[in-house]
Structures are given as C-alpha cells and as structure tokens.
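Typical record was shown:
=====
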Amino acid sequence: MLQSVPWQLTFSRAFTVTATYSSANQLGFVTHNNLNLSYLQIPNLTYGYAQLLNGNSDLLTGTIDNALNLRFTQHQKLTVLGQLDGGSGLVVASVPSISSVTDLKSMALMVDWPTSGYAYVLRKVLGLFGLQFGIDYYFQTVCSTPIRYNDLVAGSLPNGSAVCATFLTYPFTPESTFVAAPNRPSILATISDYIQPFTSTAFAVVQASLSNATERALLTCVLASFYAANEFLADPQNKKCSVAAIAKQLNVSTEVAQAEYVTAADPLTGETNQRMVEVNRQGLLNVIDVRGQFGGFANLTGFNSAAAIVPETGQLIDYSIRDAVINATSNYMPKC
C-alpha cells in the first residue's frame, strides 16, 4: 500500500471538518499511509460535485443525497465508497429572537441550494409543523455551512440584510452553545427526532477512478486512513486523545472540543454510530423518500430505489475498496 513518494490527493469537503478527519490528520493516520492531502473547501455541493466530475478533486465528502441525485437524475457516473455519519449535529437553528419552528412563518431560511438534500429535509421537518414551502416560508441561497453559521451568529448577511434561520451540523451545532448569550443561536428542532435513521455524509468518487490502478491504490490509502482514525475515535479509551485532536484541528478550547466529541460519538447520528463506511440501508431509503416527497425524482419514470441501494461494482454503492481496507492489517497507534 505504501510507496516511497507521498501520494498526492485533492480532497474536497462539503460543509465541515469532521471528527474523523481531525483524528486522521492530527494523529498521524494520514502520514502513516504516506499521504499528502490537499484540502479544497467548497462553497456548496453543486460546486463540489462539479469539481469531482471535472477531475479537479479526487474524493469528496458530502451528503449522499447529492450523489444519488446526480447519478439517477443526471446520469453522472458517481460512486459512493461508504458512509461517514448519520446527520451528526443536524438541527434547525435560528437567531435568538426566534423560539419555535412556527415562528419561522413568512421568513426566508438560509440554505446552500434550494434543491439540496438538507433543503428537502428542512421542508420535511417544517411541514410537520404545518409550514408549507413557498407559502409560509422561503429559501435564500447562502453558500457553505461555515458562512451561514457566521451569518446566523452575526444576525445578518455581510450586506446588512437580516437572517433568521438555517440548518447546522457538526461542528457548528455544539460550538453554537458556547456563543455569548446575546448572539447564541436557538436550536428549534433536532432532525433525528423526525427522520431516523438518516444517511448523511458519504465518500464519493468518479466511478471510472475505481478502474484505474493508480487512483484505486490512492483511494485505498485514503479510506484506510479514515477508517483507522474512525475506529480510534469510536473507542472511549481514546477520548482524551481524540478531544485533543479535535481541539487542534478546529482551533477551539478543550471544553468546546469535548462537546464536539460527544456529538461525533452520538450513538444515533454521529460518526461512530455504526462501523464506518457501511451505508445504513434504512437511512438511505429515508433520504430517497424525503427527496421523492418534494419532486426530487420528477424526471424519472419507474425509479427502482430498492435496486439503486444494492452495493455492487459499478453501482451507486461500491464496497470493493472498503472490503480491501477492512481486510488489511494495520498496527499503527498514535502517540498522544
């Protein structure tokens, strides 16, 4: 698996820096596999998947909904290597003056894109409170989660326009609880209370890369690094070391990092709620169901979702690299 010259990979992350990435990067799992990762922050998943498809990125971590949509409605040959989390810290959050979901009536909610997976999740959850999109509330497109979080805390966009609410994920949901009271966001709804299980962040690649020996070896090294880091993160005995890695990667205090760790290790939605890279079958069906409720598959006739989620070479989900990683033996243990 290792070679004398470090592997160079351009890695795109949508939304946030995960706890698994923090562990992999800060605790030596990446360098152990002789990797040199170039991190590309992306404004939204539309841009991120475009970069992946045009060859400017080798691997993308983002919501599985987008890979599903691109593959089946736009016929793009994307493949998911595995799942990372089940909606870690995924909530509806608002400015402090708003105290309930029903208070969002007649307001515009910030989203990365009106037809993204999380935008559909917002429509689903707000609908349960009797709010109808386009009538009771609207969307405004505001790039990435870090930007929306900063705007939410500030209470306005850079141009001074007021903001009201958005969805937050790890690491911003736990971080928001440490914001000073006058600006501290309100958590209006936790998504897992309404949609559970839910398949969220996944590792996506261009399908053709799995047929290229060099690219396949590179992706195997990357997934091996993340897999080992995730296994380390999942062990409670490694909590102190994991918290330190999160604190360093996110540049936050130990107290904030401890809250981040709790979210990442949540048994329902976190990054360690099941063996990493195993896509939750029911969680993916729930993703498909939510998208389908709002016309996300309107251009498809007779879409066979049961067949779409079956792991197989050349399909949406391909476990061949995962299987190689799991069957490999690694004796690396970080020194904390």
Remarks:
- The CA atoms of residues 37 and 147 lie 23 Å apart.
